[in-house]
Design a protein that fits this description.
alpha/beta
Length: 648
């Protein structure tokens, strides 16, 4: 006869009676349900939410027995009357109907359930007060099934109780959840699981070491069912035996009390010893990279689960974090391990601990994916943890104490400090934006907050990373040549200037910019606008700079009213004016007008002819055609019109 698994044998039978397999770790649920049954304040629908193995289905079954117990509504089932015995053995299928929501998730399944609701509970010689419907994994139902269930759930017959159980309550529609009393089952605490495992092992006649019970409870991650299943597995691994229903265990294997040690659990779960975790922590603290990599190689060659090993490292680092934060009382460690944690916590700063926890947490996530080198994420974490993290400083502006006073240092991120210096052929950087001396409407520059060097010293260079960020936001301007001056892309005191061609004047007597300069720089203006807004750049391709009024008002001529009106939108107009200011070095305004022959093409410089267009050239090759000259076009138009053949 097959053995009954421990988690089935120790399934909770009561809400809170200690001598009859109570539901552990959910006191807020058991107290409410006991009082509701004892006072006959039973709801028509319940929603049990929580992680797997925390007692949702067990609580639903206990509630079903409690409301149908022959002894009456006493808060707890007696588990001795005919109804309780029938429900415990699974013989009474009329008082308790369990439905798997994952396999019965369609609207037809719910319709069949609704047809059975009106039948009174009871069958054969058994009668009960309620028919209890338990729908497990209810979040798997389809939306149509939820809609079909909604009316029955809202107003069920007086003899029907719905209990919906789910591990994912977010997927349950709000219309369904609002019609139920919701109970959230929380993960069971480590102390409760350890105590429960010790109780189960003692009842099974097995000696379980406290260290082994802690490892089992940690691996269960808050689930009582997982913890007892792991205990059952540890019994088999350690060679311990327990009584089997109807069969006595082999007496040769039961000589003396069987024992489960921490070493048994470590071997079963693929864990390493505490000493290996401490040695890895020492290699990281001492920045001994070869020792850390050799330890990972040894652990992997022994067949240890690297994810479990990484989790052990994270648990150890968490212990260091708590010890460093004066919260060591939260740890469940013996004196020897507590001293080891305290000793290493004193050698690390809080920032270092946070950095290490993030690195190994990333490694634990990386170990999930299959790889030809499974230990690589862990090795990379050790390498990054062993590398120093230097910080460089940037001098602050000179204060009121004078250039000779000592200046404080401002730390900058290592990414900026490690960036290479800008190339000599790149854009020239200045600590303060400049304005052209002959721009009448240019606003004076604001006081700069950039670093200022003391007299007689070279000005400090901007970090290369900042220069790259600034250049990435601007179009690629040409490098300055002789006779050119550096102008800012935007008059902002905290942005380094980028070298642009110096404005030239077509009319020396002019006090502002000239139309020749605007036309000369118009391709650069289009390029600047394209970096800010491609749609505006497409509209400007129809524009022709016609003239400059009042020294800084650029008049743009358009063929189409749609393009003209779009450029006059405030956001688009500001984008064009910013581009003009960056290219020409002066504040400019924009005025848009329509050409006299609106809708017709007008003469303007073109970069290529029709024959240069690749599409036109390909069409000419395919059809063996050519573009008509003005004389040929006039000759074609002079030909007589062809008569309409349909009138013949």
């Amino acid at each position: 006869m097959a053995s009954i698994t421990l988690y089935n044998k120790w399934r909770p039978q009561t809400f809170a009676e200690p001598d009859r397999h109570p539901l552990i770790g959910q006191e807020h649920v058991t107290r409410t349900l006991r009082n509701a049954v004892a006072r006959n304040q039973i709801a028509h629908a319940y929603l049990f939410c929580g992680p797997r193995g925390t007692g949702k289905t067990s609580a639903a079954r206990i509630l079903a027995r409690a409301v149908n117990c022959r002894r009456g509504l006493q808060g707890e089932p007696c588990n001795a009357c005919e109804n309780c015995q029938a429900l415990l053995s699974g013989r009474q299928l009329d008082l308790l109907i369990e439905i798997d929501g994952a396999s019965n998730r369609g609207v037809d399944d719910v319709r069949q359930l609704r047809e059975r609701l009106m039948q009174r509970p009871g069958g054969a010689d058994l009668t009960g007060r309620f028919k209890v419907y338990i729908i497990d994994e209810v979040h798997m139902l389809t939306q149509e099934a939820f809609n079909a269930l909604l009316k029955s759930l809202e107003e069920p017959p007086a003899h029907v109780i719905f209990i919906l159980a789910t591990t994912d309550p977010q997927k349950v529609p709000a219309t369904v959840a609002s019609r139920c009393q919701r109970f959230d089952f929380k993960p069971i605490s480590l102390e409760t699981l350890v105590s429960h495992l010790m109780h189960v092992a003692a009842a099974e006649g097995v000696r379980l070491e406290e260290g082994a019970s802690e490892l089992l409870a940690q691996a269960a991650a808050g689930g009582a069912r997982d913890a007892i299943s792991l205990l059952d597995q540890a019994l088999a691994y350690a060679g311990a035996t327990r009584e089997v229903t109807g069969i006595t265990a082999d007496p040769r294997l039961t000589l003396g009390a069987p024992t489960i040690t921490a070493a048994h659990v470590q071997g079963m779960l693929g864990l390493t010893g505490f000493d290996a975790v401490c040695r890895l922590a020492d290699s990281v603290i001492e920045r001994d990279l070869p020792a850390g990599l050799r330890l990972v190689h040894d652990v992997a060659s022994q067949g240890v689960d690297l994810r479990q090993f990484t989790r052990q490292i994270l648990e150890f680092l968490r212990a260091l974090l708590l010890a460093h934060s004066d919260a060591a009382t939260l740890l469940r460690l013996d004196e020897e391990r507590r001293e080891a944690v305290q000793q290493r916590a004193r050698r690390l700063s809080l920032a270092d601990l946070v950095r290490l926890i993030k690195l190994f947490a990333q490694a634990e996530q990386g170990l999930k994916a299959p790889s030809a080198q499974p230990q690589l994420p862990l090795e990379l974490a050790i390498v990054e943890a062993s590398l120093p993290a230097p910080t460089m400083t940037l001098p602050l502006p000179v204060g009121s104490d004078g250039p000779g006073a000592p200046q404080p240092q401002q730390a900058i991120p290592p990414a900026l400090a490690a960036a290479p210096p800008p190339p000599a052929s790149g854009p020239a950087l200045q600590s303060q934006p400049l304005q052209p001396p002959d721009a009448p409407n240019a606003t004076p520059p604001e006081p700069s907050t950039a670093p200022v060097a003391p007299p007689g010293e070279a000005p400090p260079a901007w970090p290369a990373a900042l220069a790259q960020d600034a250049a990435a936001d601007q179009p690629p301007w040409p490098a300055p040549d002789d006779g050119q001056e550096a102008l800012p892309p935007d008059p902002s005191p905290d942005m380094p200037a980028i070298a642009l061609p110096a404005p030239t004047r077509s009319d020396p007597s002019a006090t502002g910019i000239g139309i020749d300069l605007v036309r000369e720089r118009w391709p650069a203006v289009l390029e600047a606008v394209r970096h800010a807004n491609r749609s505006v750049e497409a509209l400007l391709k129809d524009a022709n700079p016609m003239q400059v009024e009042d020294g800084n008002v650029v008049v743009l001529e358009f063929r189409f009213a749609f393009h003209c009106n779009k450029i006059l939108d405030p956001a688009n107009r500001i984008a064009v004016e910013k581009a003009l200011r960056r290219v020409l070095g002066a504040h400019c305004k924009v005025r848009c007008v329509l050409t006299e022959n609106a809708g017709l093409p007008f003469d303007r410089p073109r970069s290529q002819t029709a024959q240069d267009d690749p599409v036109v050239a390909k069409a000419l090759r395919i059809w063996r055609a050519h573009i008509l000259s003005p004389a040929e076009l006039a000759a074609v138009e002079a030909l007589p019109a062809v008569a309409d053949l349909s009138t013949l």
